[in-house]
Structures are given as C-alpha cells and as structure tokens.
C-alpha cells in the first residue's frame, strides 16, 4: 500500500504538470494568434496547428475554442486589474480626469483584451458549459472588486457607481475597439472618404472623454 | 421606339416592384426570426425557409446573411431616432435625468435593435462588401445627426458631446443586452446562484444611471 502510494503520487504529479504545460502551450498559441488578427478569425484548427496538436487531442484540455478564449479573457481581467492597482498604489488622491485617462490608457494598451471584452458576452460565454461560465464569472468578479476598490478609495464613489464605471469602461473599450476596426479594409474605407470621417474612431481619447464625464457626473451626485 | 419604351417601362416597373416585394419579405422573415431568438442563432437557411425561397435565389437580393441584418440595423436606427424625435417634439426643455431615462427606455423597448447594435461592428459590417458598409454608415450617420440635434437643443450639449452620448447609449445598450443574456440558460444560472447576483443585469435602470451621470458630467463642463 505504502509502496503503491509512493510510486503513484509522483506519477500523478508529473501527469498533472504535463497537463498544465499543455494547457499553457494552448493558451500561449491562442494568445499569439489572437494578438496577430482579430479573435473572431482564429479557429480551433489554427490553434491546434500552432501548438502542434491534433484538434481532437486539444479538446481533452479545453471543451471548445470559446473556453480557450474565455480563459484568456479572465487572464486579461487579472492583468488589467493589476495595472490599475499598480497605478493606484503610486498615489493617494486622484481627479476624475486622471482616473479616466488611466482607465482608457490601460485598456487601449491591451487591444487583445479589448477584442475579447466584446466577444465574451456575445460568443464566448455562450459556447461553454455552465460550469466553465460560472468559474469565469467568479474570476471576473474578483477583478471587478479590485478595480472598484481603487475607484472608491481614489474618487469616493459608491460601490454601485464604481461597478457602473467599470462596466462602461470595459463595455465601451470593447464596443469602440470593434467600431474602430483597426487594420481592416473597413478602417481603410473610413479613412479614405471625408464623409466617413466620423467613423474613424480613435479609441483612447474618445474613451477618456466619456469616462471623464461619467466620473464627474457621479462625483456631482448625479445618481444618488 | 416609342412602342418599345411604352411596353418596357411598365415591365421594368413591375420587375422592380417584385424585387422590392421580395426584399421586404426577406427582411420581414429575418426580423421575425431575430425577434424570436438571438441574431447570432439565425442562419441564412432559416431565413430562406421562412420566406419560402431557395438560399441561392435569396443571394440575388442580399449578398450575405450579414447584409440582411445590417439592413435591419439601419432600419432600427431610423426607428429609434424617430422615437427620440417624437419625444423631443413634445417638450421644449429637459433635464439630464429625463433624457437619460428616455434614451434607455426607447433602446430597451427595442431588444432586437439592442442585439443588432452589438452584432453590427463585430460581425455584420465585416461580412458585407465595402459598398454595402459605406451605405450603411451613411444611413446611420443621418440618424445619429438627428438624435444629436435633440441632445444639443434639449441639453445644450456640444456636437462632439452629443455624439459621445449616442455612442455610449447605443454601445452600452448593445453590451449590457449581451451581458444580460435574456432567455438563456446563462441567465438562469445567474439568477439561481446568490454569488452571481452581480451578473443579473437589469438593462434599463443600469443604462439610465450611466447615461444620467454622463449627461450631468457633460453639462458640468467636464470635458471642455
């Protein structure tokens, strides 16, 4: 009995480690491909080819293409919340303008995350099991709570106001990023025709303006 | 010559009329199906079956499934801008709270339009010819200008501020509607677990709060 456990435990550990390594490789491949083109253009076959696995073998690690990108969305939330926390750690007070500019800057600096933010509720969450969706939501809530703490401490917002600001920052980062359509023939069209000038969206200043007005409005007690 | 023209003109007219009638029938079928389930679940085959046409015949009227839904998105913009205009015609002044509530109410009353608003930049505009995308953009700009006039006249917003408010109202209506996931098993999950209470999104009050703060912020001269 003792002997069996002794030999089985390291084997399980090795196997768990190998599994994690495979998962990491799959996520890394999807991250690279998603950064190169838009998420909607990356198929499961593309990811399998990049990681050198057969598609059917990859499905032992992730149940769908969408689960892979949902895991990267959760990773994006963690990474973004960390950047917001680091910004906050460097200061004791902040203005609505400074917070708005920071939120916009940190989001726009993560174009893959912006793409995922719009994809998640429409496509990703709907093509995974409820268990995966549940764990994703819980992971996101933890990051929302962390960013909300920064907004409450630095600007004195109420909890519900902070959550609204985060929903607007991430929702509009996703929406504006899709509308901006960077690197596409649509974007070329917008830039080539003066009458389409309004369609040429520069996400960071646009998002900064919207979030500044929103934060000023909440600070003015607009919705108490 | 005279004789040829006499007989050809009505034939062309009949043919153009028949074509328009077919187009109207296709749009009506897509509108009904899109209202029954989410837009992403409606295929070209579904629309063809509903209208009693062969898929290949339908492609003589619309180049892709996405062109059909893009036409319905433009129709949604016209319909929504008309509702905003009617609201405005009934009053001479308005508060940010009243305008925010009206914008949220008129958008949420159009769930199919909310669904399309999120689909358009991510999926629809990207799967049509540049010519179709161009005409769609020009049609939307006309409606944005009409709603912007209401916001400028009723709240004294600058043009760029009005355009930002419209982008936020429609962008967040689309994003929140997707997040709310009405009628899905995801929504049932959110409602069944107390720890997921934050995921249960009631779009109209949420959007009203966000737009109120935004309008108060712009009126306070947040971004001048």
UniProtKB/TrEMBL annotation, chains A, B:
Protein name (record): HTH tetR-type domain-containing protein
Keywords from the UniProt entry: DNA-binding
Domain HTH tetR-type: 20-80
Single GO term (MF): DNA binding
Alphabetized PROSITE patterns for the sequence: HTH_TETR_2
Organism per entry: Nocardia macrotermitis
Pfam families in UniProt: TetR_C_34, TetR_N
DNA-binding region: 43-62
InterPro entries: Homeodomain-like_sf, HTH_TetR, TetR_C_34
